[in-house]
Design a protein that fits this description.
130 residues, binds iron/sulfur cluster
């Protein structure tokens, strides 16, 4: 794919759940949840400092050779039922950092660092992450 991109001078849009492929291939990443972009950033920034709780959960569920675990962590709960209207943040039902304001209105996609956007009203997450 890299050669194809180079030879044709085009961009490639990859749609995948495989974060290994993302880390290997992407320059820029848009993370989607419930039909919305919830985070967008250059790939290195996204992996080094995720700024949306869904992305934090995704990255936390990647197997690591340097960490011994009996079970991989997972994101609690279920994806939202998109056939019904959802008020507020679409990740609120699964978010460990949810607060009442999260359910009141849809968070905007806001630039929290140069080129790094998050649809979380509590970003930057350095304020809430341990
Ligand atoms: S806006 Fe609230 S519920 Fe949504 S991801 Fe951020 S902290 Fe979680």
């Amino acid at each position: 794919m890299r050669r194809l991109r180079h030879d044709t001078g085009t961009a490639i849009i990859l749609i995948t759940h495989d974060l290994g492929v993302v880390a290997e291939m992407a320059d820029d990443v848009a993370v989607m949840y419930g039909g919305q972009i919830v985070e967008r950033a250059p790939v290195r920034d996204l992996f080094a400092r995720p700024e949306h709780p869904y992305t934090v959960g995704l990255l936390g569920s990647i197997p690591r050779l340097d960490v011994k675990r009996d079970r991989l962590p997972s994101i609690e709960g279920r994806v939202p039922d998109m056939s019904r209207p959802i008020e507020g943040c679409r990740f609120a039902a699964r978010c460990p950092f949810v607060e009442p304001a999260c359910r009141a209105s849809v968070p905007a996609l806001v630039e929290v660092a140069p080129g790094h956007f998050s649809r979380c009203r509590r970003a930057p997450l350095s304020q809430v992450l341990p």
